[in-house]
Structure formats: structure tokens, C-alpha cells
Amino acid sequence: MTETHANSKKLFVKTYGCQMNVYDSACMSDALAPHGYETTLDMAQADLVLLNTCHIREKASEKVFSELGRLKELQGKRRAMGGDMLIGVAGCVAQAEGEEIARRAPVVDIVFGPQAYHKLPEMLARAEAQRHLHPALKTPIIDTDFPEEDKFEHLPAARKEITIKRGLTAFLTVQEGCDKFCSFCVVPYTRGVEVSRPVAQILAEARGLVDAGVKEITLLGQNVNAYHGLDATGRSISLGELAYLLAEIKGLERLRYTTSHPRDMDDALIAAHRDLDILMPYLHLPVQSGSDSILKTMNRRHTAAEYMAIIERIKAARSDMALSGDFIVGFPGETDADFEDTLRIIADVGYASAYSFKYSTRPGTPGANLGDQVPEDVKNERLWRLQDLVNAQTTAFHQSCVGKTMPVLIERPGRMQGQVGGRSPYLQAVHLDGLPDLIGAIHQVKIIGISTNSLVGWLKAAVAV
To answer: Which partner for 46 in 12, 67, 356, 458 could form a disulfide, CB atoms 3.0-4.6 Å apart?
Structure first.
């Protein structure tokens, strides 16, 4: 319940893309809650609809314009019934194409990038002041600057009545932006350069989440292991050092982080995996390609052999570590031999899971100007072969868990009556027979089988870890 509940307005946020957008959407809700906005799951009932967009997927902007067309119809119906609906576009598509969105979709009231969501109340006030103007006189509010000020400093402190709705797990952004400039990636142009939050700010937010009942936190960043925030003495702290500090928070039981870059996988972070039981033995470490020539064209600034050496160091530090990765097939210039190199590195690593995509150009990135494009049918065939190999590895990893007993954080009722569900240390969904009073704690669960996308467990003991 907000302070202004008597005059509450409904907010609907549609989130596209990555976990950081999920975190940003939650921050938008937090920023608007003191101003009388309560979230709703029904877009048609919303007084304000925000589309928090992602520029990673192909034709991302066209999907946004299609959604805006549907919103225009909803807005018209609301107005016909004496109500209204403000519409905003946020996130990376807004950052990259703010002026174009305003031009093509006059229905939009506000357009703002990832660095401006703390200004939402101010932008909405300006938009509402134009509510009764003739459409021809309205001016969309656009904010796509990269301000020097820290947006996190302006967000309201997490309040229990907001945070508790997020359940037992939560995202926490510690780093934003990217200095790597991979030739296929638009992130440096939409999120800006690498910026790390101060240590005290992160610890305070983490404690607030734990106080609200969160058991597991996932640290987020475009290059999360490039984290270099300052502590109270002005010293730069690495992600590995931050993990040790977070591990001291009483009540925090699990810690994860994503997404990492191989070049930033340093000794301190690997040591943290060795020393901290709270740090889950599951690492997402994208390589994108197994071919050195393609890695060079991608501007990844590491070789396949260097990547494999990092994997060996990680597994030496923690033998139960499982890996996840990202792969792009059909990057310009990729030959059959290059693709075979990628299949080879997948076979050598043995991934528990992976994300794979066909290359598609992103306007404004260096890759968009490369020649020697790979034919679409070749991309399709390569993607099928790669996914077939990864799926076999994922199934084998799931099968290797059968017969083992592992700690499972029980998070929710299961899909079937009399069941509950949760996550293993390896982010696998686990379903088992059990009562709802198991929810909210970590229990020792014996894995007795696998289904299509999850594990089947048996409660070994009705005692929380």
C-alpha cells in the first residue's frame, strides 16, 4: 500500500530482454510508488504503460512499434470510457532510436534511456501537463542523455512492502555499460561506458532485500566481473572482493552473478568460488566462437586457448563448477572450419546449458559494415547442429545429477497439486512432492529423475538447511 493509495493509479510495465531490464523495471515501479502508482497485471486497466525495451534481438524496434499500435487502440478505448492512458518507451531501443520513436508513434508521451528512469516522476509531471492539449501541440518528453550523475543515488530506498513481492530471489545491478566494443554488440552505444556502483550502496541494497525475505541475489552487469566499485576508503574493489563482503550478510544464502567476460575472470573471483559456499557453482561465461580468426573479427580480445585456460583454472578451484555459454553462428566470414572450431570448444568444455543465436546485424555497430555475410540457409544448418550438441550436453548434465542429493531453494507451489518447486545450485528447476510450508527455505533433495526441462526430486529430510 502506498502513501497515496486513496488516489492510486495503475502502472503496467512490459519488460523485454535481459535480467538487467527486469531489475530496471522493478526500479521504475519503486520510483513511481511514492507518487501513487500501483502495479497491475492488466495492461488495459493501466493509467501508465511503460515498455522497457531491449536492442539485442533482431527487429527489436519493429516489435516495439507493433506493440505501440496495440496500445493506441487500448488508449482510445480508455478515453472513450472517460479515462486515459499515458505511454512511455524505456530501455535500449529508446536510447538508440528516441527521436524516431517520437516521430513514428505520436501516441508515445515519454521516451527515456536506461540512465534516466530515476527522472520518471519529473517526466510524467511534464507529460501530464500536456494531457489536455490538442495532439498537434503536444511534445513528447525525450531523455536519452548519459548524465554524469549516478541514477542509483536518486532511487528510493527499497521498502519492504515493495520488495517482498519479488519473492525469495532478486536481481541487484552492480555494474552497467561496456568498454569492450565487441563488433556485433550495441550495448556500449545504448548503456554507455563501464560504471560500477559504490560498495556501500550495493551492501545497503542487498541488506534491504534480505530484510524483505530474499534468500538469493543475482548480481547484474553488462560485464559484471569488470566491477571496480569504490569502498569507504576510496579503494577500488573487485567483484571477487565484493562477493566476500556480501557473504557476511546474515540471512543471504545464495549468490550468483551474470554476465561475465573471459578477460575479467581474475584470480580473486576464482578464489571466491573456491572459498565461498554461498557463491553458486554455476558460471555463465560467454565465448561466442571457438575460432581465433572469428574472435579477432568480433574484437573479443582473447583466443580459444586462453578461454580454455580460464575454464581449467575455474574447475581446478572448484571441481563441481558447471558452465553456461553464449554462441553466435554465421558471423561474417565464418567458414566451415571456423564453425567446426566452435563445435570443438563446446565438446571440450561440456556445457550444462548455452544460448545460441544466428548473427544478425545491429545498425551502428562495426559488424554491420562487414562483408562476406554467411547465407541464411548455412546459418540455419549451423545453428541446428550447434544446438543439437548443446542439448545433448544439457541432457547429459541433468542425467548426471540423478542419484545425487543437493540443496534446493523451494520457491513456489509446483505445477501439480501437492508439489513444490525450486532451483538447484545449477539454476535447474526442481519439482518434488511436498507441502507449501517447505517454501522459503533450502532443503536437501535427492534427484530421482529428469523431465523435459527440469529435475524430479524427493525430499530427503523435512529439515531446512
So the answer is: 12
